């Protein structure tokens, strides 16, 4: 049996762990933490790691746990994957009907002046050479996109950029640059993206939590954050996710500014804008790094750009901070096909495809917001609607019930195992009792999701195949502990 390490670590607990009727061959694989430190091995059981590599048990720090209990989930193409916040409408690239890139352009000058329209495609003949370690042209394209002059009159330049293997690389690189293992700390605001905690653990950095305000659409609590920063100078990084995952709430600019303006604290505020292109136009604060030397803004091509498969993330920062990040990275971290596709994605005609896909996603998001509450047993939306997913409560009764994790787990399981629809259980996150996180799909996917969740909830309330609404089935209990860290 083979388990291929799953690199989509939407969080430590966010692997596609639900098996479907077509995918029962669940196997153990290395934890997200191990994947994060680059150990990608083919194993049947975690214990095999130590048999296969006898010295490894000593090499791995004891605090790097098997944190995700992840199981491999392979899609056979028939399932509806609404669990990893990918772009349901595909890559933001102008493609021919057979999926080939048409009239792409890798020319930076053309990208910069908006005339990119040559017949260049991905240069496979150059693959015998290592890629460019600096990626200046790609960085120039990213700057051109984010120099909107909405938040500053200054321009950012390639000197303000780090590019890496997804924004997950930037999360890790920042910790390695700014935190001394076993001594320094970082601050996160739960509920939030799990990879901050995974990277902290891998780097032996303690995490201090200042929760979002669950009673107030998961707003940031800058006064509380500042209090903690004053009290604990060992905190070197503050990770703020905007729009949040799983909250889908854009963080108010003034709240970020309040932390940036902390009078004595001497650390870095990291703003994770993975989902920023689903929020209001010009919401990105990337260009603000020209004004704030203590701000880093992370972005990715994995979400609105629909390019999760190429693994390209970026961190915008003051030049001295960007330089530090570039100093700690592996020299050839961005593969040349990735860089070429990323550069082309930033050219106007491909950006037009990305924006058209974004509009389609926004329309389907609006449909979910309008239609989900009509399903008996569906409760409130939690958080906001600034992303390509929604967070919604499952209730313990068809009408007037209260949020219930038992029901949410059952819905999650039944959707995956009997309907081939995979969503994400989020009920164990702070302030998210009874919640599922649902990635916005295509129109057809949303049709099917709405139909299936109605059936599944009705079955649960009839007690069909379950131990009852308030009792959780053994299988459900098992899964509940599996999917939640
Ligand atoms: C908030 C957030 N940040 C960063 C990432 C990582 O994205 P990437 O694919 O660029 O590593 C994700 C992925 O789901 C995310 O949800």
Describe what you observe in this structure.
One of its GO terms (cellular component) is endoplasmic reticulum membrane. This is histidinol-phosphate transaminase. It catalyses: L-histidinol phosphate + 2-oxoglutarate = 3-(imidazol-4-yl)-2-oxopropyl phosphate + L-glutamate. It is an enzyme of class 2 (transferase). GO terms for molecular function: histidinol-phosphate transaminase activity; pyridoxal phosphate binding. This protein has 485 residues and is an alpha/beta fold. It folds into three domains: 1-72, no CATH class; 80-91 and 353-483, Aspartate Aminotransferase, domain 1 (Alpha-Beta Complex), CATH 3.90.1150.10; 108-346, Aspartate Aminotransferase, domain 2 (3-Layer(aba) Sandwich), CATH 3.40.640. Helix content is 33%, strand content 12%. The chain has 15 helices and 13 strands. The strands form three sheets. The chain has a seven-stranded mixed β-sheet with strand order 2-8-7-6-5-3-4, sandwiched between helices. A four-stranded antiparallel β-sheet has the order 9-10-13-12. Helix 9 (253-260) links the parallel strand 5 and strand 6. 51% of the residues are buried. The model is unreliable at 1-45, 59-73, 114-119 and 465-485 (pLDDT under 50). The structure holds pyridoxal-5'-phosphate. Pyridoxal-5'-phosphate binds next to helix 6.
């Amino acid at each position: 049996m083979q388990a291929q390490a799953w690199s989509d670590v939407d969080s430590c607990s966010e692997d596609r762990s639900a098996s479907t009727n077509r995918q029962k061959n669940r196997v153990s694989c290395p934890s997200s933490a191990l994947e994060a430190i680059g150990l990608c091995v083919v194993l049947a059981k975690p214990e095999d790691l130590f048999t296969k590599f006898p010295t490894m048990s000593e090499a791995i720090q004891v605090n790097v746990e098997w944190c995700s209990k992840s199981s491999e989930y392979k899609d056979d193409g028939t399932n509806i994957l609404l669990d990893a916040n990918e772009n349901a409408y595909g890559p933001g690239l102008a493609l021919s009907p057979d999926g080939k890139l048409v009239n792409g352009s890798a020319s930076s000058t053309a990208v910069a002046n908006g005339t990119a329209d040559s017949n260049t495609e991905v240069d496979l003949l150059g693959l015998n050479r290592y890629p460019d370690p600096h990626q200046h042209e790609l960085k120039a394209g990213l700057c051109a996109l984010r120099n909107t002059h909405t938040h500053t009159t200054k321009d950012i330049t390639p000197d303000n950029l780090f590019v890496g293997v997804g924004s997950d690389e930037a999360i890790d690189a920042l910790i390695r640059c700014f935190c001394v293992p076993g001594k320094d700390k970082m601050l996160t605001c739960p509920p939030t993206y799990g990879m901050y905690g995974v990277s902290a653990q891998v780097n032996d950095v303690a995490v201090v939590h200042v929760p979002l305000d669950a009673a107030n659409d998961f707003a940031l609590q800058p006064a509380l954050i500042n209090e903690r920063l004053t009290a604990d100078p060992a905190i070197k990084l503050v990770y703020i996710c905007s729009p949040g995952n799983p909250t889908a709430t854009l963080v108010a600019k003034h709240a970020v500014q309040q932390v940036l303006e902390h009078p004595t604290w001497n650390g870095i505020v990291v703003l994770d804008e993975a989902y920023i292109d689903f929020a209001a136009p010009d919401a990105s604060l990337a260009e603000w790094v020209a004004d704030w030397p203590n701000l880093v803004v992370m972005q990715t091509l994995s979400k609105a750009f629909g390019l999760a498969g190429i693994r390209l993330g970026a961190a915008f920062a003051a030049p001295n901070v960007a330089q530090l990040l570039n100093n700690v990275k592996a020299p050839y971290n961005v593969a040349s096909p990735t860089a070429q596709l990323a550069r082309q994605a930033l050219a106007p005609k491909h950006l037009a495809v990305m924006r058209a896909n974004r509009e389609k996603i926004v329309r389907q998001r609006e449909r979910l917001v309008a239609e989900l509450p009509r399903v008996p047993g569906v409760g409130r939306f939690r958080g906001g609607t600034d992303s390509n997913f929604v967070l919604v409560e499952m209730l313990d009764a068809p009408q007037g019930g209260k949020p219930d994790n038992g029901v949410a787990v059952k819905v999650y399981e039944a959707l995956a195992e009997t309907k081939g629809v995979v969503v994400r259980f989020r009920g164990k996150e702070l302030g998210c009792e009874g919640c599922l996180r649902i990635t916005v799909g295509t129109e057809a996917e949303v049709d099917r999701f709405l139909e299936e969740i109605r059936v599944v909830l009705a079955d649960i309330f009839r007690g069909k195949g379950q131990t009852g609404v308030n009792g959780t089935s053994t299988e459900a209990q098992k899964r509940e502990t599996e999917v939640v860290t």
